[in-house]
Specification:
OB fold (Dihydrolipoamide Acetyltransferase, E2P), 5-stranded mixed barrel, 2-enoyl-CoA Hydratase, Chain A, domain 1, 431 residues, 18% strand, 14 helices
């Protein structure tokens, strides 16, 4: 047992692909969504695990969800790893939510010709985007981000102007106003200017530090697709109509697909990733059990496999704060989590093929009608008896009285009971 534990520990402590005391580079681009929240959490967890000295998030965004922005800020505040946010490349912007993310970083930097600002909150509904002017909401947002700016020794008066006046600043104006600390031409220039700065009780040594690009997990890729506002909206709308259509029509099908689409749509608009993943996984398992309890193979099995596959990807742990696990070990964990789904997919695909094969065959009774049988006993119209057909005993019912040993003709079938009549002799005519 001791040797086994040693081997397991050795597997967990394999050499890492990331350099200790290096710099992790990650990118946030496009609207701020649930995918970006998970990206930030993954990057921070990786940097903590690999003992990297800082994370640099390059930022280029038109804005995004308020709750997602607050979740990112919470992740920034809870880690001991210094967080640098760099509006990059040139002509990039960090508007609205992006401005709040920038001023809430440990070190805020911009590239020349980039801009920040325009942070008045908006509400997006059926009528399009509408600006929010309610003092209750505006004051709460302003105060929240004023305190975030104060915590990082930045100009708090700018926050209200960003929100109320939709103030915009370029990199030089932002530096002069105290919104950022650094204006850097490129990543190399930024690393030189970061060198020697004290952040979270640590002295940064970035001038010659090894840089590593962050590689998001498949989970992030999936979230990026369904978190697109247009895609998540379409998923919800199609899902709702599919449920309505399914409930108003006989049979099972549309409503199952509708529930799956609604779950994915909720995930895309910011529903808790872990809860949604667990819901997808459980929903898939229930569908597979329902499929096993019904004859044939159809939408229940297909939807169940799809739901389990998506849920498995989202449930895979991408990092661990308690163990120092290697990249190779993490990849093996992903493979191990997906193998059962792949095996079940192959099994149900094979079952589906067999069902189709059986359905193409002629019904068994079509090969019995008109064939001969012999009465194993006497019976009548109301009393069932046994006949011998093709060497097998079958329960049968006659159209008239049947004598034992009489030759019969199969003329029908009700369930497992054959309908027989005395065989007509060749050449014999009825009077």
């Amino acid at each position: 047992m001791k040797n086994l534990l040693v081997l397991i520990a050795a597997g967990l402590l394999l050499p890492s692909a990331y350099a200790a005391n290096g710099i992790l580079l990650a990118s946030i681009e496009g609207p701020i969504t649930a995918a970006d929240v998970e990206l930030v959490r993954e990057a921070i967890s990786l940097a903590e695990k690999e003992r990297m000295q800082a994370i640099i998030f390059t930022l280029n965004t038109p804005g995004g969800g308020l709750q997602e922005t607050l979740d990112i800020l919470t992740a920034f505040d809870e880690t001991a790893v210094p967080i640098v946010v760099y509006v990059h490349p040139r002509t990039a912007s960090a508007w609205s939510a992006g401005t709040f993310i920038l001023i809430s970083a440990d070190i805020a930097a911009m590239t020349p010709y980039s801009t920040i600002g325009s942070s008045q909150p908006v509400s997006i509904g059926s009528g399009g985007a509408e600006y929010i002017n309610e003092s209750k909401i505006i004051n709460a947002i302003v105060k929240k981000f004023e305190e975030s700016a104060r915590m990082h020794d930045r100009n708090t008066s700018l926050v209200r102007r960003f929100v109320v006046e939709n103030l915009n600043l370029n990199s030089e104006e932002a530096e002069q106003a105290g919104a950022i600390e650094i204006v850097a031409d490129d990543m190399s220039d930024l690393l030189k200017k970061l060198d020697g700065k004290e952040v979270k009780g640590k002295r940064l040594e970035t001038a010659f530090a090894e840089k590593t690009d962050f590689r998001p997990s498949p989970k992030i890729g999936l979230l990026e697709i369904i978190s697109d506002p247009m895609i998540s909206g379409l998923l919800l709308i199609i899902g709702i109509y599919a449920v309505i259509f399914g409930l108003s029509s006989p049979g099972v099908g549309a409503e199952i697909a509708g529930v799956l689409l609604i779950l994915l749509g909720l995930l895309g608009v910011g529903f808790d990733v872990n809860l949604a993943a667990l819901g997808l996984f459980v929903f898939g398992v229930v569908l597979l059990f329902a499929e096993l309890a019904t004859p044939g193979f159809g939408v229940l099995g297909i939807a169940g496999l799809a739901s389990i596959a998506v849920g498995s990807i989202l449930l895979i742990p991408v990092s661990s704060g308690d163990y120092f696990v290697s990249k190779e070990f993490h990849q093996q964990a992903i493979i191990a989590a997906l193998i059962p789904t792949a095996i079940m997919t192959v099994f149900f695909a094979f079952a589906f093929y067999k069902v189709l094969e059986v359905r193409r065959k002629k019904p068994f009774f079509s090969g019995m009608e008109g064939k001969d049988a012999r009465a194993a006993e006497g019976f009548g119209r109301k009393k069932e008896g046994f006949v011998i057909f093709d060497g097998e005993y079958w329960k049968a019912r006659g159209k008239g009285y049947i004598r034992k040993g009489q030759m019969l003709t199969v003329v029908g079938k009700e369930g497992h009971v054959l309908i027989v009549e005395p065989k007509k002799e060749a050449g014999k005519k009825k009077a």
